[in-house]
Fold:
Amino acid sequence: MKTRAMARTVVQPAGISDEWKCWIAENLILGSHPETLAGILIKSGVVARDAHAEIHAALRSPYLQGVQRLHNRLAKRDWVLGIQSQLNRLAPEAAAIPRRERLSVQDFLHQHYRVNQPVIITGMLEDSVARREWTLESLGRRFADRMVEVQFGRNADPDYEMNSIAHKRRMPFGDYAALVRSSGVTNDFYMTANNDTQNRQALHELWADVPALPDYLTGERAGYFWLGPAGTITPFHHDLTNNFMVQISGRKRVRLIAPCDTPRLYNQRHCFTPVDGRAIDLQRYPAMAGVPVLDCVLAPGEILFLPVGWWHFVEALDVSITVSATNFRWDNDFYSNYPQHHDF
Structure:
């Protein structure tokens, strides 16, 4: 069947930039009333005639109608996710993160890993070299001259996690350990997984001190080293793999939100949300009302299983040393199918 192209002259209203057009389209798809959007445009300096003409053109656009169909599909997916979210709120008292002493491999697999549920495992680290010997003083002496990478200048940047590359600084490990010891409570600097490329080699002997946990993990030693003062904060985000958070020393407060509540977390960029885990602002983020948040304090010697997709906020209550691990015995490749474009 042949088709015939139709040529038509399109008159573009003056004063409407491409950024405004994207804004109009997005807000129409999200359900904003056309007159409300026109009023905002007019207040921003757009001529009233042009504002109404542009919104009218957008409403008639077959492109916008196609996007509306995709939006409807996403709304259906949000509805499916919302089923579990709604059921979770029926028994909030049952949502506490359980602590299990030396959890068996079969119970871990079937009750937590397979069904994507967090758990705190206790009793697995008592005899480890890391628990017995790792202190700021001992590590500072042992690796004094090793050059390591640390995140600095976090307090001046509200998006320090998204901008982590800009905050990298190298220094001798002994100097960093001394800084942590003398700093008091601060979030301005922190050695994190974002510094792993440099630090894995610089501190490679550390991995021999950490229990291999063969019931749960393979022998490839895929993990990260975290060291910082009391007050360090990792904002709400989700990971693209299952993770073990192995707490060697110090305590950490951890807040978790189930993946089924992702549609209510204002996730506009990659795996991050602007929602502040220290104090969730319901006036600014009203969709967060009623979202169950699980709280726990992870003590030294405990292991928190963070299932893939679970949002988590972490705050160090003391000088803290943590090792995270991702080398589970079971399939942990959830990042290969992650969306290639991270602007949501």
Q: What stands out?
A: The chain is about 30% helix and 20% strand. The longest strand covers residues 243-249. The first helix runs from residue 18 to 29.
